[in-house]
Each structure stands twice: as C-alpha cells, then as structure tokens.
Amino acid sequence: MTDAEALNRRLVDELTAAGALPGQWRAAFLTAPRHVFVPGVIWDDADGSVLSPRRRDEDPAAWLTTVYTNEAIVTQVDDGTAQDTGTGRRITSSISKPSIVATMLGHLHVEYGMRVLEIGAGTGWNAALLAHMVGDENVTTIEVDRDLAERARRTLAEVGVSALVVTGDGADGYAPGAPYDRVVATASVHAVPYQWVAQTRPGGVILTPWGNAYDNGALARLTVDGHGAAYGPFVDNTVAFMWLCAQRAPRPAAPVDLAGATESATALHPDAVAFDDYDATFAVGLRVPDVTTKFEDADDGSDDFAFWAFSGPSWARVEVTDGAVTHRVRQQGPRSLWTEIEAAYQWWGETGRPPTGRFGLAVTPDRQYVYLDSPDSPVA
Ligand SMILES: C[S@@+](CC[C@H](N)C(=O)[O-])C[C@H]1O[C@@H](n2cnc3c(N)ncnc32)[C@H](O)[C@@H]1O
Q: Whose CA is closest to 273, among 308, 223, 298?
C-alpha cells in the first residue's frame, strides 16, 4: 500500500467512525483518492488575511498529510490571477472538507442510474465520487472558471472517469442534460437560480448551501413538485461554502468616523447573536436583510472586542469589555442595525428558539422565501 493509500484509508476510517461517511459511500472515497485531484500548489491563510502558496515539490510529505486531513484546502485565489510566487486575497476555489463532502453526498440519497448535475466542479473530486455511485455517463458538472474546468476535465480523464465537465455559469444549469434527478451545488447561494428547479424532474432533489450577508452556513434540501416549485428543510447549518460567483457578498469595512453616532447600552452579548449558537445566528440572519458583521479584537491584547454590523450607509458597533454585563452601542445611518439584531434575537426567543432544521426554503417561479415548519408560515 502506498503512503497515499494508507492515509486515505485512515481518513475514510476516521470519517466512518465519526458517523460522517455513510457506508454506501465508502467504496467511492477509496476509489477516488483526494490527492489525485488536489493541485500541486495549494494556499494557506496563516494569518487570516493573506493567502500564501505552498508547493508539493517543496515538501511532498507535508503536502500529502494536508491532503488527507479533514479540512478544506484552498486550490485557487483571486480567480487564478495571483502568481504562485506571490500572495492572494480572496479564496475563489477549494476542495471541500471531506466530512462535509460526505455529509452532503449522504443527503443526496442517490442510486445507480440517477442523473446528477453538480454546480462548481472545482478539482473534479466530488464529480468522481458521484460518478462512482451513479455511473460516469450520468454526471454533469459545471465550472465557471475556464482553467479550473479544463484541469478538472483532464484529471477526471486521467483517472478514467468520463463525467461531462461543462465550462459555464452554473446559475443557468445545463439544459441539454435535463431533466436531472439531483442538482447539487458546491457553492453557496442566497437566491436559488430558478433553472435548477426547471431542470429537475418532479420528485427530484436540489441540495445547495444557502446563506445571506449575515450568515452563510446552511444547507437546503429541496424537493421539486409537479408545479414548477421546490420546497424543503435546511438540513445543516455548518457547511460554509464560497458564494456562487454572481452572488458574492461585499466585504465589510469599518467606518472611520464614529462621531455623531447614536449611543445606547445593551445587555445582549454579541456572541449570542453571531457566534455561540449556529441556530441563533441562522435565525437572526433571516430577519436582518443585507447585514454583514465583523468581530474586531482589541489591539491591547485583552479579551475585549468590538462587534460591527454594516448595511449600505448604516453601521452599528458594540464594544465588549471582558466580563462586563452591559456593552456600549453606537449606531448610525437610516437603519439602526443593532436594534434590528436585538429584535431578531428576541423574535427567535419568543418563537421557542427553533433549530435551523425547523426552517425551510420555498422556491417558486415568482418568489423565494424561508418558512418555519410549513410553507404556509413564511418568516423571511
Ligand atoms: C468549493 S469549490 C467546489 C469544489 C468541487 N466540487 C470539488 O470537488 O473540488 C466551488 C467552485 O464553484 C465554482 N463556481 C463559483 N460560481 C460558479 C458558477 N456560477 N458556476 C459554476 N461554478 C461556479 C468556483 O469556481 C469553485 O471552483
């Protein structure tokens, strides 16, 4: 057994033991080893803001260990414009975390012969796993980046997988291969492209990471009905994918001038609305449209921090002193963002703190909305 085979087997065993890898996917993971798909240059974000390249040639053993660790690996930055001798700013492609890949494949409930459309081919690894389960000729995967698509096509051919790799915008789906039994996106959306619904057969499933400016970690599993609509629950809220390129969110920026803001105090700790509890963060995000957030550590080395919320010209800042019971709030602009966040958190509490799994997404030809328990109860 090669080092790669041994490491792959160990990872597969770990995923199985953790309950992340459904038994029927085990053979696919062993047959389509991850190292074949990961490029020779990967990117580390050591300090959280700048991405630096790491080459397999420099330390093949370390590269292989990274490949067989249960983590996402950045495989492209800045849409491929960054030199692999320099640094990058924005992650534009990655090979997803193996436990998340396994969880998503489990939610797909595929059988041999089903036709599957994947959005976001990336390295081609997920397409190879799918091909193992449903048959090569039944997998179509779309990648918007020409170079990535070409590389995925080449890699799949090298390992003898003849899945179709289409270069194009996954938001359009791929009509020539429709209807599909499954559409699975490996990029996140806040609006499900309607073509995905139109190209899925009634009873078929759309599985997609979903989020908004506030929170991007949910996974929606929609079933298409016979009337051109799709409904279904959020089945996870820890997946955190990059956005479908046309739906990329703006990066939050701190305003420089705090003068003139409205001041108040709050007893609500920002961690409660955006950090401690995935269910709370998800629910609050539903009720505060187009709000991005940021935590900013104090520069004196203490545990104090500021929580920021931004939306257009509006911003809010909550200053947290470690151990304090109330926190100073400053807000400015047409929207009082902290007040909105407090109200959203209160709504979630008054509704009985429903977990993410009680919410669902409806996608109809004319509108999309999030509901609680039933499509008859829209909440956002
Ligand atoms: C997390 S990566 C996908 C990982 C991939 N499934 C794999 O197995 O390696 C997300 C990919 O989605 C692609 N993407 C983003 N927007 C897209 C779009 N509109 N259409 C098709 N692909 C898109 C990105 O270029 C990126 O390669």
A: 308
Residue 276 pLDDT exceeds 80: yes
Pair of tokens at residue 87:
């640094």
Beta-ladder partners of 212 = none
Q: Which pLDDT score, from 0 to 100, does residue 255 have?
A: 63
Alpha-carbon distances of 62 from 3, 7, 67, 96, rounded to whole Å = 12, 12, 9, 19
The stretches of the chain forming alpha helices (DSSP H) are 3-17, 26-31, 60-67, 98-108, 125-134, 146-158, 194-198, 270-274, 278-287, 337-350
Q: Which of 96, 99, 314, 336 is catalytic?
A: 96
Would residue 93 show up in a list of annotated catalytic residues for this protein? no
Q: What is the dihedral of CA 174, 175, 178, 182, to 10 degrees?
A: 30
**pLDDT classification of 273: cutoffs 50, 70, 90:** very high
Higher pLDDT, 255 or 246: 246
* Chain segment 3-31, per-residue pLDDT in tens: 999 999 999 999 999 999 999 999 999 99
Cα-to-chain-centroid distance, residue 351: 27
Residue showing tokens 């950045």: 74
- Cβ–ligand 1 distance for 188 under 6 Å, the answer no
Alpha carbon distance 184, 195 (integer Å) = 13
226 near 216, Cβ under 8 Å? no
Q: How far apart are CA 145 and CA 163, in angstroms?
A: 17
Task: Supply the pLDDT for residue 252.
Answer: 61
**Residue 143 Cβ < 6 Å to ligand 1:** yes
Q: How far apart are CA 192 and CA 198, in angstroms?
A: 11
How many other β-carbons are positioned within 10 Å of the β-carbon of residue 197?
21
Question: How far out from the chain centre does Cα 27 lie?
Answer: 25
**Which residue owns the Cα nearest ligand 1 atom 1?**
94
DSSP secondary structure letter of residue 351? T
pLDDT digits (tens, 9 = 90+) for 213-234: 999 999 999 999 999 999 999 9
User: If pLDDT is split at 50, 70 and 90, which confidence band does 159 have?
Assistant: very high
pTM for the predicted model, two decimal places:
0.96
Q: Give the distance (Å) from ligand 1 centre to CA of residue 242.
A: 8
Residue 141 CA to ligand 1 centre (angstroms): 9
